[in-house]
Design a protein that fits this description.
Order of helices and strands: HHHH
Strand content: under 5%
Number of helices: 4
Radius of gyration: 16 Å
Number of strands: 0
Distance between the termini: 47 Å
Helix content: 55-70%
Length: 104
């Protein structure tokens, strides 16, 4: 028998993405009043961009959401992906390495 793990399937990646999407969408929707389809697109873009709303879209979405809502969205996605029980390793991004180390 082969002991190697098989790579995650496309289906399992989709399930994880939808789980993350649903978690963030509910959290932001509970706190801020943003039109549904706008929030849905913001969450999707933020998840695809690893926790940040791309600068090219930021000014567009600033028309529909407060700066605090955008910051909260990014914080939720970043925590979900890179937090203590995150989906992705903090070592994946060198520019975020300092955020996970104690200053010393």
């Amino acid at each position: 028998m082969n002991d190697q793990k098989s790579p995650p399937s496309v289906h399992s990646k989709a399930v994880v993405f939808h789980s993350c999407y649903d978690t963030v969408l509910r959290k932001v929707d509970a706190r801020y009043d943003i039109r549904g389809y706008v929030l849905a697109q913001m969450v999707k873009l933020c998840l695809q961009s690893r926790g940040t709303l791309p600068l090219a879209y930021r000014s567009f979405y600033a028309q529909y959401a407060q700066a605090e809502a955008i910051a909260f969205l990014e914080a939720c996605v970043t925590h979900l992906l890179f937090g203590p029980a995150g989906r992705l390793s903090p070592q994946e991004y060198h520019y975020q390495r300092d955020a996970y180390q104690n200053p010393g």
